[in-house]
Design goal:
Shape: globular
Largest sheet: 8 strands, mixed
Low-confidence stretches: none
Mean pLDDT: 93
Structural class: alpha/beta
CATH architecture of one domain: Alpha-Beta Complex
Strand order of the largest sheet: 3-2-1-4-7-6-8-5
Number of strands: 8
Order of helices and strands: HEHEHEHEEHEHEHEHHHHHHH
CATH class of one domain: Alpha Beta
Strand content: 5-15%
Helix content: 40-55%
Radius of gyration: 22 Å
Length: 388
Amino acid sequence: MLVFLSICFYLSAFIIFWAMIGYPLSMRVLRRFNKQPNIVKDYSYKPSVTLMVVAHNEEKVIKEKLENISKLAYPRDKIEVLITSDNSTDRTNEIVESFIERNSDINIRLFKVKKRQGKTNAQNEAQKTVKNEILIMTDANSMLERNSVKELVASFSSQDVSYVCGKLTYINEDSSSVSKSETTYWDGNLRLRAIESDIQTISAGNGALYACRNEEYYDFSPLRSHDGIMPIYFALRHKKAIYNPDAIAFEKAGEVIEDEFKRKVRMNRGILYYILPDIRILNFFKYKWFSYFYLGHRTSRYLLWISHLVVLLTNMFLISESWFYVTTFGGQLLFYLLALVKLLTKTNNRYLTMIYYYCITIFAQWAGVFKILTGKAKPFWEKAESTR
């Protein structure tokens, strides 16, 4: 029994270590040996483009989004703007229709989804009306840098590139301790994504700004998100999903922990599926670095919820075995106590905030698992108001 508990303890501890420290360090080492970028851009490539924005009750930001899109540096005769309204019940449709009427020189159309089933379903329905070569997706609250479309499109210089995601930059890092913590976490993710892209293919994208070839689009389940599933889908078909940091979208991070928690719960609605979405990922010989990237970057992080519980429970049973287990158990209790101190005191101490943010992230994974197991996971969610 002690042997079994010890194996569970050390295995869970290793998963936590690898997800947060080991994998990022290994990627730094890999970067030293691979300094040749994987991305090649062809700015002369100017295919027809559809820029899709899925919006559900986005009256607060949709006008600003349309005005932002109208300033993009891409030939007007080559780009179509498709606003996909996911059964909006506020003034979103009215604002879009008014903008279309006042801007006849811009190719904009409104597609209305009658039954709300979430972002992915809305994309699936609207994509069937798209005829252009490149399909670009962006969120209603994500404002695009002027050259973002040009940058995304230029990245499709090779036929083996099927997916390109841009760089999401948070503009409110200093607004609160929550937005600062999210920005710090996200910047670390982007550094890993850049290395994955330079070596072979990324293990995940981001929903603020990404593109794929329209002919290669696939109708994914409404419970899946494109930023999670598309890179996997293409990698398993020996296609590349790459990251272009010069295609930039600007967005607000959640400024209050309630908003950030809801966002993370929504992100974890498919966490059990994403631990190992396809058994083929284990074939290192066939998929090479992608297998390493996915298992190291994604699988290990999707196992944090259970790993933290196992390492705590097994430590409790092993505590009488040696001073080492006394120390590790005390360290875990102190870690969670510091998160509780942050919660109760509302202090802005940087280190306490990061500990608290990390614990909230783990708790959100548990909430996601609970929703899956109880059948409460839904394909749609309530938006975080502090990001608007």
